[in-house]
Amino acid sequence: MDFGTFMEFHARPGRPQSEHFAEGFRQVDLAESAGLDAIWMAESHFNPERSVMTALMAVGSAIATRTKRVKIGTAVQVLPLTDPMRMAEETATLDQISEGRFEFGIGRSGSPAAYDGYGIDYSTSSERTLEDIEIIKGLWTNERFTYEGKFHSYDNVCLVPKPVQTPHPPLRMAANSEASFPIVGKLNLPLFIGVRQHDTALVEGYVATYQAAREEAGFTGPADVSIRIPVYISESRKEAESAPEESFMKQFRRLGGQIAVTAGRTDVAQDAERASRIAELASLEWDSVMREKVVVGTPEMVIERVHELKERLKLTSIVAEFNAGEGISESDIERSMCLMCDKVMPAFK
Questions:
Q1: Which of 50, 107, 318, 328 is most buried, judged by most C-beta within 10 A?
Q2: 21: exposed, middle or buried (Cβ count in 10 Å: 0-12, 13-18, 19+)
Q3: How many other C-beta atoms lie within 10 A of the C-beta of residue 265?
Q4: Radius of gyration in angstroms for the set of CA atoms belonging to the chain, rounded to a whole number
Q5: How far is CA 314 from CA 187, 234, 244, 251, 307, in A?
Q6: From CA 174, how far away is CA 20, in angstroms rounded?
Q7: Which tens digit of pLDDT belongs to each residue from 130-162?
Q8: Nearby residues of 142 by Cβ (< 8 Å), 6 or more positions away
Q9: pTM for this prediction
Q10: 293: closest CA among 203, 182, 205?
């Protein structure tokens, strides 16, 4: 298994934004030196209380120049908020700067808030995402590229530069709703999942539909599945099970609120699945969160939990969210990351 860190360059109250970047880069340096396999950057817009991570390619290039080993990924780039030509250029450039260490995690986002800010119709997000994938892959892999689509058209253009990796950097697509897992499977793309909105059993069933869709489309071999999940590790079980509660629960409650405000919007599917998510997130208790939605404990407990997730969800990698809710201290983030590298990862290598 691969082990990575999920990074948003979190905001903390009462300090300038420059300090958010400084802390983020300290964690980048630790991820490189401690031995994590990957750094996954999260895109966030119009939310200064949470994150300053809006320009993933710019931050990724900075990460690439201060590291030599660790892979650099997006988790995820929200494709419909970008121009696919520009995105193909910038991702190829990052692949060049990192000497082939770039991985392109993509998605459309389950929240329409960023679309509102960019003035883009959220109801078109699925169509735009699929078209953008086709365009970016075509630009990466063809010397010259012509395309006529619903949202974009190109006539005999030549992408410069081309990526280092052939045929192109690895693609990984996020799925969150029941309907999206088979779509990713039919595309035969590696899968990004989370358990923030669902319990493990439900996600297990969704992963099965992803694999079934792959096989129905004629693709063989094992699934490639990565999970993003909050992680807190301590040598003390008592501390591990109590210290992250406030911060981690803040994230789940915030997510419930974000979904709830979309109720009644005509550009968001108002289905039973969305309604059940709102109800579940509103009633969550820490005991059930520890069992189903996070990884907390001593290194030995974490190894056991990751083994369980690996078997049930067919995991090939885990992306640890060490500061879910933005309330985990920098020293505790560093300790969790070091314990992950020193005591957990060897059990899976």
A1: 318
A2: middle
A3: 13
A4: 20
A5: 18, 26, 27, 26, 10
A6: 26
A7: 999 999 999 999 999 999 999 999 999 999 999
A8: none
A9: 0.94
A10: 203
